[in-house]
């Protein structure tokens, strides 16, 4: 999926209020930005993925939190309910 397609899918997921898709798509955008060396953009996208993961109770929340904490962008939280 290219950048424009990712943008279109993000917009569509927002319109549908599809939290699961938003976690996946923002995570993908974060992965791509990180691979390109743009850590600020990566953390921006990963923060959104984390927020949507929290809202959805998605299992990705702890891992997203750890990634953000490793970059100094969040506190390292505990998620006993996800364990």
Tell me what the structure shows.
With 83 residues, the chain is mostly helical. The protein contains 4 helices and no strands. It starts with a helix and ends in a 13-residue tail after the last helix.
Defining traits:
single chain; 83 residues; mainly alpha
Question: Any chance you could write out the topology, listing elements then pairs?
Answer:
Blueprint: H1 3-16, H2 19-35, H3 39-56, H4 61-70
Helix pairs in contact: 1-2, 2-3, 3-4
Number of helices: 4
Oligomer: single chain
Q: Strand tally, please?
A: 0
Helix-residue proportion? over 70%
Task: Report the span from N to C terminus.
Answer: 32 Å
Low-confidence stretches: none
Share of β-strand residues: under 5%
Structural class: mainly alpha
What general form does the structure show?
flat
User: For the report, how would you describe the main beta sheet?
Assistant: none
Concise overview:
The chain is mainly α and 83 residues long.
């Amino acid at each position: 999926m290219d950048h424009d397609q990712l943008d279109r899918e993000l917009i569509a997921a927002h319109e549908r209020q599809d939290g699961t898709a938003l976690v996946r798509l923002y995570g993908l955008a974060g992965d791509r930005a990180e691979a390109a060396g743009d850590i600020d953009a990566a953390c921006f996208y990963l923060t959104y993925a984390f927020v949507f993961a929290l809202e959805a109770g998605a299992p990705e929340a702890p891992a997203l939190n750890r990634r953000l904490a490793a970059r100094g962008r969040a506190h390292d939280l505990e998620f006993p309910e996800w364990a």
